[in-house]
């Protein structure tokens, strides 16, 4: 066996994982207590600890900005993970130190990891690019929450950097592992013909404005945060069938403004899609809001899709399961996303699509490290790789540009391949 082969890692080798971001989705810890949402125990950290228990992950690190939060985070994780599930090792290296506030702490954290390790980034949208680039330059495989970045320029740079370092870079979109969405996608692609129309709606209750007050309206908006879900579904579904060519943004205002936040309450992006085989047109309407009343679900999520040969409705928020319990509000629950209730004292949410999204990425990174797969193998739609999610970024950026131009439509410009957006320009009437 040659020397390089002798050093090649095996698929059995465990992944080391750095989690960047310490907020709701990573830990479930918001404002000094458990998040008032469907993610009070978090998702990312819980999943990484369970993957370690199952032999897929070894070292776990967590990086934030304010190290003074870590004592509270550790107590929170012990209460919501360690005391709830058996055999959970919560050992975690944290950055910066418990006495330090450092917005660039991720640089120190990344320096303690090696090429081939994994970074999972759940931070405010405007920080994704710099953090992801630092991780890529170190040779880490990177998963970034949606939106992966906010501009086509940054997206293109990530693609180039990932190719140069031969690392896997992907966007975290757990809806791709939702069996309802996955089946809807496959039906649309195989049975419904050309794209005609789609309407998607996603909301969160208005108390989320407090959760996200550090960045809401300052560095991002509700469209980047929520419309990104169903825009990715469209890009994933219509790959090779249709492409987005024009985006118009409109909005509702009032509630956030009354709280002193200069941001839209709701944003609607109307997107013109062009079917590739005959240049016929389709239309998609994506609406997102963070001023909804608190209801039976944390997030209303639904869409209607119509092709030339069929249509489908999906209500992601209501799966036919409701729970009433003393001291708690009536709720429609979705254990398909995250099953927090233990089975015989053990975490048993491995089949949930909130977990599968991360586990599949970790498995892919281990396979690439072992030489059993190439980075390019995952451009087949099995992961939302950086190279296959450019249209989504173009739609979101064009939507923001349209809003800032008082609703002027924005055209998406394509390169020679006719598939990858290379620019955005105001529509000429």
Instruction: Give the oligomer, counting copies of the same chain as homo and different chains as hetero.
Output: single chain
* Overall residue-averaged pLDDT value: 94
Q: Can you summarize the main beta sheet?
A: 8 strands, mixed
Tell me the number of strands: 18
Determine the N-to-C terminus distance.
66 Å
Strand order of the largest sheet: 14-13-9-12-11-10-17-18
Helix content: 25-40%
Class by alpha and beta content: alpha/beta
Uncertain spans: 1-6
> Which term fits the overall shape?
globular
Helical run tally: 13
Describe this structure in words.
The chain is built from 13 helices and 18 strands. It is α/β, with parallel strands linked by helices and about 425 residues long. It has an eight-stranded mixed beta sheet, covered by helices on one side. It has a six-stranded parallel beta sheet with strand order 5-4-1-6-7-8, with helices on both faces. The longest helix is centred in the middle third of the chain and has 17 residues, at about 220-240. The N and C termini lie far apart (about 65 Å). Residues about 1-5 have low confidence and may be disordered.
């Amino acid at each position: 066996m040659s020397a390089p082969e002798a050093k090649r890692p095996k698929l059995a080798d465990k992944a080391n994982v750095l989690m960047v971001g310490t907020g709701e989705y990573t830990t479930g810890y918001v404002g000094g207590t458990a998040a008032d949402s469907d993610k009070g125990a978090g998702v990312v950290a819980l999943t990484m600890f369970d993957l370690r228990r199952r032999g897929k992950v070894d070292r776990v690190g967590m990086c934030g900005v304010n190290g003074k939060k870590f004592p509270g985070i550790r107590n929170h994780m012990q209460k919501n993970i360690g005391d709830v599930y058996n055999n959970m090792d919560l050992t975690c290296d944290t950055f910066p130190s418990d006495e330090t506030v450092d917005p660039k702490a991720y640089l120190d954290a990344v320096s303690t990891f090696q090429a081939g390790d994994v970074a999972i980034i759940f931070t405010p949208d405007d920080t994704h690019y710099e953090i992801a680039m630092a991780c890529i330059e170190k040779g880490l495989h990177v998963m970034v929450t949606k939106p992966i970045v906010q501009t086509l320029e940054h997206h293109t740079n990530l693609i180039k950097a990932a190719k140069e370092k031969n690392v896997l870079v992907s966007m975290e979109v757990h809806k791709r592992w939702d069996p309802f969405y996955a089946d809807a996608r496959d039906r649309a692609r195989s049975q419904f013909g050309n794209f005609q129309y789609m309407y998607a709606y996603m909301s969160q209750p208005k108390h989320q404005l407090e959760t996200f007050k550090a960045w809401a309206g300052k560095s991002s908006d509700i469209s980047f945060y929520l419309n990104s879900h169903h825009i990715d579904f469209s890009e994933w579904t219509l790959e090779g069938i249709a492409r987005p060519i024009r985006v118009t943004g409109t909005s509702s205002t009032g509630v956030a403004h009354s709280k002193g936040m200069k941001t839209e309450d709701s944003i609607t992006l109307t997107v013109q899609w062009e079917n590739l085989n005959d240049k016929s047109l389709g239309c998609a309407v994506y609406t997102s809001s963070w001023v909804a009343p608190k209801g039976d679900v944390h997030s209303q999520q639904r869409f209607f899709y119509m092709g030339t040969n069929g249509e489908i409705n999906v209500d992601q928020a209501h799966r036919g399961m409701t729970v009433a319990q003393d001291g708690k509000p009536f709720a429609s629950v979705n254990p398909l996303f995250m099953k927090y209730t233990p089975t015989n004292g053990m975490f048993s949410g491995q089949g949930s699509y909130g977990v599968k999204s991360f586990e599949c990425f970790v498995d892919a990174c281990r396979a690439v490290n072992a030489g059993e797969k190439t980075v390019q193998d995952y451009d087949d739609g099995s992961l939302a790789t950086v190279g296959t999610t450019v249209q989504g970024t173009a739609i979101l950026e064009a939507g923001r540009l349209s809003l800032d131009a008082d609703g002027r439509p924005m055209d998406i410009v394509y390169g020679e391949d006719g598939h990858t957006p290379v620019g955005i320009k105001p529509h000429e009437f």
